């Protein structure tokens, strides 16, 4: 028989729930305080816990936190009031499976139970099959076995059960976009995932890009345009490079996120915002808030749920599995049959500090695959002794392209070309942006990503 513990100080509510669960053949125990509940939890390990957010002696999330500290089992459903959003989110972060609002609707509870039990069964099934899965990679899979990455994966699983906004922070190439896509896949795979790079769009176009505009709203608006927030429907809007989001537009975005509705530029119709917002940044937003270049209220609105993706050098244990994964994928993509990676190469890869993170590892391996004709990976260890991310074939002070017969990645060509244009404009960013057709923040980002020579820094 399954055991449930109901923790709430409202006797009429617990009575109803008790009858409901008895009817479903549960063994029911009811408690009115956190302390009693915790003691029972520890002693009896119930299968299911219904936990009120507010209890007379301590709050629900606190009880949950203690239980998690002691690694107590049990699926937890929080019982919450509308004004308790903060505490509820805290509980979800701590590992609660879901929540229900008071007054409790028993039909909703039915659905929720079914969902939780199904998820639990799927998890058990997955655990049983995991060694098989790790050999047959899924597309866009997040690879990693370091503790830090498992935390990230856990956070993804938690946030994917709620519509909360998410802020992802991580250095370039750590996998922010991949994480955003994974959250989306878990949350609303049938709905659109719409990405918008806030740094790549000229400031005055960003507003209409996000919200859309009506015909004639401004000079050049010859047709109605539907904004990305609208295109995303019930899916996900991914605001990439959020640190570059123009200050003037921040209050408008804040209002839209608060009211969950907006107008197209020049329009009167109210359009509701149904999509989840995930923002990503490689900048330290907290210090931007301190220095006044990012609104604090917007920052907190975006950061309902915060995931920091650690740089690769902080999760060295991911390097070998990532290497195996990329070699596997590159074999397929390039029609190679590399099946052996010398141990010494793995050691070298593990000891390098990867300023360009996972993307850089991917680039290094792509180049190694080009060199490898047989079944053994050939890695030129010299590549990893330099200080800048491995992207260019030629050293950074050579401006031209490499030999015609050299196989370069797009990134390598892009880097060389940016360098050439910057040399031509003698480091004048404005002129370089004009020639390259990109915005200044994009140029700045590419320069730091490709670690171009310092004498060309603005
Ligand atoms: N844990 C991982 N497992 C598998 N692939 C990964 C992982 N992390 C990153 N990648 C891959 O590395 C590349 C870079 O990741 P991504 O584009 O998500 O980084 P990012 O943080 O958005 O970088 P940037 O700040 O430069 O935009 C992608 O090809 C992505 O699929
Ligand atoms: Mg990105």
Structural account:
There is one protein chain. The protein contains 18 helices and 14 strands. With 458 residues, the chain is an alpha/beta fold. The strands form 4 sheets. The chain has a 5-stranded parallel sheet, sandwiched between helices. Strands 7-10-13-6-14 form a 5-stranded parallel sheet. The longest helix has 28 residues, at 106-133. Mean pLDDT is 86; it is low at 130-135 and 391-405.
What's the short version?
This protein has 458 residues and is an alpha/beta fold. It has 18 helices and 14 strands. The protein has helices at residues 11-23, 34-44, 60-69, 85-94, 106-133, 147-159, 176-187, 203-211, 228-231, 247-259, 285-291, 296-302, 319-334, 343-351, 357-371, 410-424, 429-436, 440-449; strands at 3-7, 27-31, 48-52, 75-80, 98-101, 166-169, 193-197, 212-213, 225-226, 236-240, 261-262, 271-272, 276-281, 305-308.
């Amino acid at each position: 028989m399954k055991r449930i513990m109901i923790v709430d100080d409202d006797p009429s509510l617990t009575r109803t729930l008790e009858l409901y669960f008895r009817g479903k053949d549960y063994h029911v125990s009811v408690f009115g305080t956190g302390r009693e509940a915790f003691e029972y939890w520890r002693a009896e390990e119930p299968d299911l816990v219904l936990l009120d957010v507010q209890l007379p002696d301590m709050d629900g999330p606190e009880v949950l936190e203690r239980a998690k500290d002691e690694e107590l089992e049990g699926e937890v459903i929080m019982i919450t009031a509308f004004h308790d959003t903060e505490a509820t989110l805290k509980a979800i972060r701590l590992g609660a499976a879901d929540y229900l609002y008071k007054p409790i609707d028993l039909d909703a509870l039915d659905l929720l139970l079914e969902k939780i039990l199904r998820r639990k069964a799927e998890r058990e099934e997955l655990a049983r099959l995991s060694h098989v899965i790790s050999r047959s990679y899924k597309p866009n899979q997040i690879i990693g076995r370091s503790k830090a990455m498992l935390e990230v994966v856990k956070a993804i699983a938690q946030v994917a059960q709620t519509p909360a906004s998410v802020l992802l922070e991580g250095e370039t190439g750590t996998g922010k976009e991949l994480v955003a896509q994974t959250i989306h896949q878990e949350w609303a795979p049938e709905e659109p995932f719409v990405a918008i790079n806030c740094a790549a769009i000229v400031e005055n176009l960003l507003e209409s890009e996000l919200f859309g505009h009506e015909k004639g709203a401004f000079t050049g608006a010859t047709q109605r345009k539907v904004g990305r927030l609208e295109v995303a429907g019930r899916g996900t809007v991914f605001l990439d490079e959020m640190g570059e989001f123009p200050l003037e537009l921040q209050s408008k975005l804040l209002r839209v996120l608060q009211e969950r509705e907006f107008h197209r530029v020049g329009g009167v119709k109210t359009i509701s915002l149904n999509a989840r917002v995930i923002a990503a940044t490689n900048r330290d937003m907290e210090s931007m808030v301190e220095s006044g270049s990012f609104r604090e209220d917007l920052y907190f609105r975006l950061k309902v749920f915060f995931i920091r993706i650690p740089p690769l050098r902080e999760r060295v244990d991911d390097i070998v599995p990532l290497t195996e994964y990329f070699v596997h994928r590159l074999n397929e993509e390039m029609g190679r049959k590399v099946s052996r990676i010398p141990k010494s190469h793995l050691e070298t890869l593990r000891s390098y500090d990867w300023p360009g993170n996972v993307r850089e590892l991917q680039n290094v391996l792509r180049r190694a695959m080009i060199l490898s004709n047989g079944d053994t990976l050939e890695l030129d260890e010299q590549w990893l002794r330099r200080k800048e991310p491995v992207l260019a074939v030629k050293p950074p002070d050579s401006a031209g392209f490499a030999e015609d017969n050299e196989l370069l990645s797009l990134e390598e060509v892009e880097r060389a070309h940016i360098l050439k244009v910057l040399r031509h404009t003698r480091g004048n960013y404005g002129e370089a942006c004009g020639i390259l057709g990109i915005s200044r923040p994009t140029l700045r980002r590419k320069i730091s990503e490709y670690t171009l020579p310092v004498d060309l820094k603005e």
